[in-house]
Amino acid sequence: MSTFKKSVTAFAVAAALGVAAPAFAGNDDGSLKGLIVDSKEMAVAGATITVKDKKTGFQRSVVADADGSYRFLNLPVGSYEVTVSKAGYETQVLPDINVRIGGSSINIPMNAEGVEKIEVTGRMISMIDTTSSEAALNIGAVELARLPIARDATSVALLAPGTTKGDSRFGNLASFGGASVAENAYFVNGLNVSNFRNGLGGSTIPFEFYKEFQVKTGGYSAEFGRSTGGVINAVTKSGSNDWEYGANLYYTPDALREYNGNVLRRNGEYLIFNDEDKYSKLDANIYLSGPIIEDTLFFYVLYNPRDITNEYVSGTSTFYKDSTDDAFWGGKIDWQITDDHKLEFTGFSDKRTTTSQTYAYDIDTGAKDYQGDSLSKRGGKNLSLKYTGYITDDFVLSALWGKNEADLTDQSPFDETCPLIIRWDPARANLGCWTNSVPEAGKDTREAFRIDGEYALGDHQLRFGFDSETNTSVAGSFYSGHVYYGYYIYDAGDSIDAIGWESDTDGTDVARVRVYESGGEFETLSNALYIEDTWTISDTLTATLGLRSESFENKNAQGETFIKVDNQIAPRLGLSWDVNGDGDSKVFVNYGRYHLPIAANTNIRMAGAELFTADWYILEGLNADDTPQLGEYLGGVQYSDGTVPDVREVLDTSIKPMYQDEFILGYQTMLNDDWSLSVKFTHRDLKSVIDDITIDKAIRKNGWDDHGHNVYVLTNPNTDITTYYDTDSDGVLEQVTISAADLGYPDPKRKWLSWDFMLEKQWDDLWSASITYTWAHSYGNAEGYVKSDNGQDDAGLTTDWDFPYLMDGANGNLPNDRRHTIKAYGSYALTENLLLGANLLIQSGRPLNGFGEGLPEGYGDGFDEYAYGQTYYVGDAFLPRGSFGRTPWTTQLDLSLQYRTTFGDADVTLQADVFNVFDAQNAVRFDEDAESGGANEDFMLPVGFQTPRQVMFSANIRF
Question: Are 867 and 498 in contact, with CB atoms under 8 Å apart?
């Protein structure tokens, strides 16, 4: 039996105030467990424990086992009254116990009748869950309301140790444990809302719709998969017996916002021009909740109108004015059919359209010449229905069906008639009337089903389940005007390797004419089975033993299986030891394997109907509409002919899954009643990568016919592959096996090592604090799904592995390597009604590289040099990744001041948030292209900066 010496009353106070609680395994539900003991800390068997949500009337009862233990499975997240009774003992009532995502644990004392009561003093309560080996941060609306953080899920995730902000070119996303920003999973009320096309983010939801977050940074249970980064798991608000309604308003004015300065080239010309920047955001929420049938049927609805405008100059010659004014709507219905059966329905729409007005811009005069509008459509409807059945006190079964949509359409009125025209030499300039370079009509739809069970059997708590997803992507894209004209100047000796042409005079004008048409409907099937046992080995030792099996099947545009990977076995093993047996400290260890599915982007790019050709001409001049007057034909290449490729010739049939192994070792202890200290070591090793490679080297080495273009195959780089190729140009594909040595690629590598040190003080009605220092090292030659080096979001098909020599020099410190990070946040009650919040981030910079357009001088491996843009590591010999230093350290302090009062029957909160108080604007990104048609004069100039200071005012009224 575990020793009990903590104050139950204190725990109730802490739980009611929303202190971050322990986290067990679980999706969108909670649990409550512990021991019933008497004044001598002996087990009280047979006691009846009842939990009741006073707001909804939901209640359940269990009876304590022979050892005094009790356990409630699958409780809705919320605040409960806990009552413990047994003949011969005084009834114990705990009025406010907060159950979080995952769960909470509390030991409850009982006083025998006629015996002196247990004296309860102070706020002595340990918030350490000595049974969990998971690394997670639980934080709810109460805690977040006290902090100055941006109102989005990524900002919540960045509070957790081991997370860092990713490259801004991918949007506002977080990297977990060195993984790319495209390897995270996002759940809302149990429904997966992740972007399955390229992994970048998920559904966009207003902060006010959320009730609680669980940020899983490692060691997560077998219930969760499809992620080698982290998991952001959220629960939305819901209704109760109390009628509640209100509104809030958030305003970020342009007048109180600072902007980044201009950047000059070394010759004094503008590289980046920010003088025209303007940004404002007005965001409102109106909500209503209450009972449809008291104690039975409840609803919560929220409507979120918003108005966002953003003005800026791209480059130095194009001005954009973006505006978005679509409203979010969302709601939840909870039906407690009986105490043993309930249904939950969640529906919301984050559909939004950004209108971009495009102007030709004269940087000298500020004159703007309107060119046209383009539309960018994102988001869509999300629906889920979940059933939970309490079959017995020890067995709970749940089933969820869900569907979500994501629009990915970019279009304008000029897409059909205005060709894409870019003059690349002597300086880049957009010509013609086009506004979208590559218009796209895209839509992703996920239909998900899962069934989960939980069964308590003595010292074992078993969880098991099955989940299935059918993901459908519709894609159609082409160059604006269905043709792309690129204008270049070639001097004597310059060559176009793709067609074997070399210029014999200086200043030769050349036009490259490209045609690109791609589209189709693509389906991806994903299934998983899992089982997990949380085994209480002894009073002080708990093991978590899990196993997950996943399968992925990606289909081409004709509905044929393009790639299928079955039975990806992922063990999850954890052990937690209550060191002193008093709940004050624990040592925990965790090992897990995590698989990543193949992004739908891979189907679209490699298994669709794609027409892609390039032809080169001497440029005689330009017509009035900037289209070319074509002269002598120099040659051309057909990369794809518009038909769906035979799946056999673009796939390694022996391909293995992409997975990562993780090991965690940690220690956590209470220093006193309020302060806790923890230290955690994490090691992650990406064991396998899936990407496309060229097999050109092997084709030449084996003497097979060269078809005049690069041959790409999806595989695990640096493994033997089995694929199909027409070796003698007779039109018949033959199965061929190619050794890794013939292909010439290095071993993929991505490793992450980190030490997290965390000091936390719980909220005590006066102040709270969390301070974390993380030392971390991310190194290797593969960032993962996307490539921060060049902002490439082509998930699973980055340029990294396209040719063997592109990987020479690629080994080193990876883009998400931030060696030192300090995070500190907390709040302080200045008066009863006035609250100060603070959030501080201090972080070292990321590595800088130098990329060139060609092979280093003297490179003698027998390869021809391909014109492949700035993708080579530069120098007379390869200068490896990270050879050009690091970006500067960044420091950002955010502050908030909150005033609470009442006005009649209304609770009113007024708040001001100042983000980046000291307006720090250090560079976070530099131009890493050392060559661009020769030496790049802009090499290592800053091109991205910290977000400057901005102020947000908010007002909240609640009835």
Answer: yes
